[in-house]
Amino acid sequence: MPVWGMLLSALAEIRTSKVRVALSLMCVSALVAVVTLAIALGGMARQALVQTFEQEVGRPVTLTVDAPTENGPSAMSDEAIARIEADLRRYRILGSPLREAMDVSYRQVLPGGTRPIKGDEETGGEIRTVGANPGLDRIRRIQVASGRWLVPNDSARFEPQLVVSAKFAEQLGPRPVGAVVEISAPRVWVRARVVGVLSSGTPWSPTEIYMPYRAMARWSIGADQTQYIVRVPKADAGQVMERLRADAATSWGLGQPMIYREEGDTGAVSGTFGKVLVAVAVFLLLLGSLPVLVLGLMAVRQRRSELGVQRCFGATGSDLFLGVLLEALMVSCAGGLLGITGVYAISGPLFGFLKDRGPFADADLAMDFPWRAALLGMGVAVCVGLFTGLIPAMRAMRRSVIQAIRS
Question: Alpha helices, DSSP H only, in 248-316?
Fold first, then answer.
């Protein structure tokens, strides 16, 4: 039987068995829709995980150079940092000193006086102050929503320039960029100016302020503890670590510093997440295929006389096998397209809700329709068609002419 003849036979059977086809479409479309949504939400969760790691630690691979002493961490001197930066320029490697403090107070300067600023307007909390070079935004994931990021000239300004988080900016009023605040330095309040506001980030992002490292060191703001972070290509991470250890012992004056390689567990967690999604997809595939399989077996049983007549008129077992399998594939593909269309219709409101109020609120995630998940959903639909059509097609192929005449 030619291919077009099998197509016509499959279409005729689909038009005849409307109830069975409708039930099969419902099962397959629901299955594909659930799998597509699960893959899309899993991708968003992985993206949020990677984003959080890159904000807090750095993009892979980030090396952290620490010079501990017997009494705990100690600060790197300006001379040591200058020597480190000279070597990194020679190696063409990007790095930045990092100085963090949690015991700094802030207050906003208003025409009628000043008012304190908390880590959170409702619950209070600490503010993390970070001193770094302008190149930090290429080491860590830092995105500015309004204003600008730090520039090299900011390190020479007498008035520190600040880039604040969204939680801090909310307390400064409707126009936070350009606001004047005061920072509690030892024995004096230092006047500073806000030049940029960070994007909202994830819901668990801390309230933090970035300022030039030189300004922070000049005013002795924060604890006297400093690290140095370096971003290197992943392939050269081991070689660079050995080179930095050798330079630290010979020219930096840091003795035997501790150098940590920060790649994060995002790859392992993402891999585990992917395996869980695959397991869920396989479970749904088996669970959603059972009703369709039962309907297909019942249809072959009801058509045993028709299949026998086709054998009498010259149809081979292969023709019957391919005809039944082709019918199952057509129904499953139609159900897959229906399920993907339904997910596409609700993706806009659903992703908007998740971005505004859901678990991914305030995260800087891509909320477009996941076409990769849709393609995987169509793959699931094809697998369902093959799985649910294979057994009925084999039974149809084995149908003998004598059994059909007796029935």
Answer: 266-302, 304-312
